[in-house]
């Protein structure tokens, strides 16, 4: 098949990890007779430096026409001045909004070979297989915000807003996913305190009652979920939640497999291209050292093949290669648990070797 793919490496470790995923995509194309037309664009801090804009039209336009987009990460201390005109993260939020990518799938499935890389006990993480569905284009990330002076001090506010239609569509995505998995859907909110969460809870329940009565359905408050996620993670299948809660819970969830550097994600809309990225950030503390774990990004590339290009066999093949590399004992520093570790490029090479068989 022919496909237009856009790579947006971004900042920090972004270019290092996307380079490894690109090698994997090129290998898959040549092995399976596909033609991937790969172009690269700037987003985040590097785009601010080049164009004064974290998501210039020059970057966005090719994305609109792409079949899939693979992003590294944006941000870093260079652009962290709270008084700056714009920020790298604005570019990421804008591309999600512009492309209508309201459903962010974040699978969490620990690898048997990495049981010891997790800070949690083996009996807690064994058998865990959770799919988080995080709402991505609404909530407090996109509500009105402002700051003002009052009684001699500065006040700032961000509004958390959801409309029924926004909740319905993301709950539907999650419920459909649950139907193909263990038929268990959990909705996470803060309905004991927040009005917006009470709308979330009522709307989610209506959707499930009306169209997904085959599912086991429950609701959990977000503070309790933060605890259940690391005390009884095996009890969850698909978890649907709002933008901010999903952001926080999935970074926490990365400790089940053992590292942020292992978790990929897919951001999907009703139609149009999907955006694929690791859930982690630009890791300024290790950027430029050549030690970042490229596996989350390689797995995000596999999700792109699966969800946007319908290349299921190819996606399975990449995921199996990653698993076999881990089974063979290869580790980057973040999962080495004090043992011997490989650099970013070496880990990428191990995956390519495994793909070659
Ligand atoms: P981070 O996710 O970048 O890093 C958190 C910790 O995890 C760091 O110690 C880092 O070294 C480690 N880590 C992350 N990815 C790794 C990998 N692939 N291999 C090995 N170790 C890895 O979070 P942060 O430090 O809080 O944020 C840094 C910057 O990244 C901020 O500017 C933030 O806004 C941005 N950010 C961007 C995205 C994105 O682009 N999707 C996501 C999260 C954070
Ligand atoms: C993520 C990141 C982003 C988010 C930031 C960088 C805007 O943390 O993709 O998880 O909060 O959505
Ligand atoms: Mn995050």
From TrEMBL:
Q: Which residues bind substrate?
A: 96, 106, 134, 223
Q: Which reaction does it catalyse?
A: (2R,3S)-3-isopropylmalate + NAD(+) = 4-methyl-2-oxopentanoate + CO2 + NADH
> Which top EC class applies here?
oxidoreductase
- What are its cofactors? Mn(2+); Mg(2+)
Q: Quote the record's cofactor note.
A: Binds 1 Mg(2+) or Mn(2+) ion per subunit.
Which pathway is this protein assigned to? Amino-acid biosynthesis; L-leucine biosynthesis; L-leucine from 3-methyl-2-oxobutanoate: step 3/4
Cellular component GO terms, alphabetical: cytosol
Write the record's keywords in alphabetical order, separated by commas: Amino-acid biosynthesis, Branched-chain amino acid biosynthesis, Cytoplasm, Leucine biosynthesis, Magnesium, Manganese, Metal-binding, NAD, Oxidoreductase
- What is the stated purpose of this protein? Catalyzes the oxidation of 3-carboxy-2-hydroxy-4-methylpentanoate (3-isopropylmalate) to 3-carboxy-4-methyl-2-oxopentanoate. The product decarboxylates to 4-methyl-2 oxopentanoate.
HAMAP family to which the protein is assigned, alphabetical: LeuB_type1
Q: Would you tell me the protein name for this molecule?
A: 3-isopropylmalate dehydrogenase
What species is this protein from? Rubinisphaera italica
